[in-house]
Amino acid sequence: MHSMTGFGRGAAATDAWQASVEISSVNRKQAEVVVQAPRELNELDARIRKAVLAVVSRGRIQVSINVERPQGAAADFRIDPALALAFSSAFTELGNTVGYPVLPAAADFLRQPGIISTGNCEIDAEAAWLAIEPALTDALVQLAAMRASEGDHLKTDFLTRLGILDSFAKKIATEAPGRPIRQRELLAKRLRDAGLELDPADERVVKEIALFADRCDVSEEITRLDSHFAKFREYLEAAEPPGRALDFLCQELFREFNTIGSKANDASIAQTIVEAKTELEKIREQVQNVE
What we know:
The protein is an alpha+beta fold. The protein has helices at 45-53, 81-98, 106-111, 125-175, 179-193, 203-215, 219-236, 243-264, 267-287; strands at residues 6-13, 18-26, 31-36, 59-68, 76-79, 116-119.
């Protein structure tokens, strides 16, 4: 099981290019890959996304790629001929204006931005890919390792909280059968307080208690809770990403506990339901970060 949160960094170089890749991921219901790279590498976008989606199935993944010439590589000098001629013509026009020749010095050309520039040449995407690919692979390995490590922590937390929920369900299963008995005692007390003496063996009392016992029976919900707990643990051990399935199971667990609270109509069980739902909410929050 993997978390959707992680980070990875990789670097590689060839004789022509050196590349560094950083990948970060956060939770998202679907897979979303965002690539930040020089525009000359746009044609590599599909390859980058394919490599990322081979490792990640859910989450928002941001890939930042930087490509530059290796240290020590000769810098390229570029001259803008049109700008240089326009700059020189400006001095000629200046001389005509003041009435004597004004000639630009070499330093004047160097100070004028854009006439002479240094930097790397245009990036060749295919040549750069030879450095980007291994850097991307290393970054993805680190990302997957961090997501797996975080997933292990989440798994441990889930198992602990599932054990707590299981104990709540067992407590409810133990207390629920006594609810009709308490209801019969409560009914008898109300009748006595109202000055009505009624034989407990009276058919009407027996029928009322039988109907109440049927309405407050939560055995089916307890059975479904046990089934959901088992399925939850099964998904935690599955090879496939279980995030969506776990999210669905959390909804089902909430539904069963809600139903038990409504049917049982008992203060003690209601308190247990509140505690169970509080614990389940913690699980549900963490499940949102599971791939």
